[in-house]
Amino acid sequence: MAGGFPLSGEPHFPHDYPDCPAGARFQEEQEAELLAKFRRRPPAKRTNYIKHGCLAPFRCPWQQLAEEWELIVKEGGGGEEAVAPMEQEVTPPQSNFTVLRNRKSLRQLSAWCRPTSSKCQRARNLGSTPPLNRNVAASLLSAHGGGSLVWTRLSLLTKGQPEQHALVCVPTADDLQLVGKEPGCTGPQEPLHTDHFKSRVKRLHKKDHNKPGASSSAKPLNKQSDPASTSAPSVNPGPEPSSSSSLTLGPDITTPSSSCTSALTLGLWPEPLPSVTSHCSRVTLGWVTQGDFSLSAGCGEALGFLSLTGLLHTLLRQPDSQRGLVLLRNPGSMQYRFAKINIEV
Fold first, then answer.
1. What's the CA gap between 115 and 121, in Å, rounded?
2. Pairing state of beta strands 284-294 and 148-156?
3. Is the dihedral of CA 56, 30, 298, 340 positive or negative?
4. Which helix (H) or strand (E) covers residue 168, if one does?
5. Is residue 13 part of a domain?
6. Residue 311's closest CA among 120, 157, 168?
7. Which of 79, 178, 188, 215 has the least CB density, counted as fewest CB within 10 Å?
């Protein structure tokens, strides 16, 4: 262990087994604990995860991620054309997701995630592993199902320390060109989102505070005015990546229903969640379950899960010399950082 972070190449039970009952229960208990800790903090001291573009800072909606990536590939046809917009509320899960544990398939994925920058390295990889193409990727998905997840290790290319529940996203063509020209660059930034639930939370709290018999000691929420809260729900677009048209699923701003209005918490997105893949400017591949700075590796490292469908979809569109590069962003940060994928068998 280095820096409090387990560096062994074996998954740890139960948090690295989200597809079993014990793993699901562990995630529920962890979410309840983190949510209670978040609510104990004063409202003015809480991180506003809505403005940071983080839908689920205390859990990882694996089922929704797997279903949305299946829909992306199905509607996009696996080609370069734009993907049709997605429904705002995700339908109930049809089948449970699974974690890929087949060693032969994991070896193939591990070889495909390594960049082939030299002829000898390319020949060595191709000698033991079939080259990655659409037919091979389709056969792998048909064998294990599109709803599978892949357990991976992520290593940051520059400074930074990954945190729990950090987002793992797909870099655009502009991002890959940037890191190719400047290997030490930090990475892009997520544009600031607008918290269009803040005014609702304040009105709800004020209504409860003015009720007859309300406790006189109840204190209102933080009184910092947000001029954007009075405007229509929107997200600051920021500079749109040129190659995001093949992955972006369209706007995903939803209005909370009356049933979830009473459960609003300042800074947290209420249920049901909108599209988890297209909510940010970079398409989401998965999340980090553990992260810290590794003293042995000399960089920030993380363990997490990625969608198998999304991973293959991404690798097919990356240059051979930059395969396996992703973006990582902590829940409380707007800064993306480049990381490389390492699938251990």
1. 9
2. unpaired
3. negative
4. strand 167-169
5. no
6. 168
7. 215
Contact 18, 149 (CB under 8 A): yes
Domain with 166 in it: 21-76+95-192+224-342
How many domains does the chain fold into? 1
Greater confidence, 180 or 244?
180
Mean pLDDT, rounded, for 66-88: 63
Q: Considering Cα of 280, then 281, then 287, then 290, what sign does the dihedral take?
A: negative
Does the residue 211 lie in any domain? no
Q: Tokens for 182, please give them.
A: 């400047």
Contact 186, 335 (CB under 8 A): yes
Q: Burial level of 314, CB count in 10 A (0-12/13-18/19+)?
A: buried
Query: Which residues lie across from 325 on neighbouring strands?
Result: 340
DSSP state of 130: P
- Tokens at 205, concatenated: 């709290």
Please tell me the distance from the alpha carbon of residue 307 to that of residue 60, in angstroms, as a whole number.
12
pLDDT digits (tens, 9 = 90+) for 85-106: 443 444 444 568 999 999 999 9
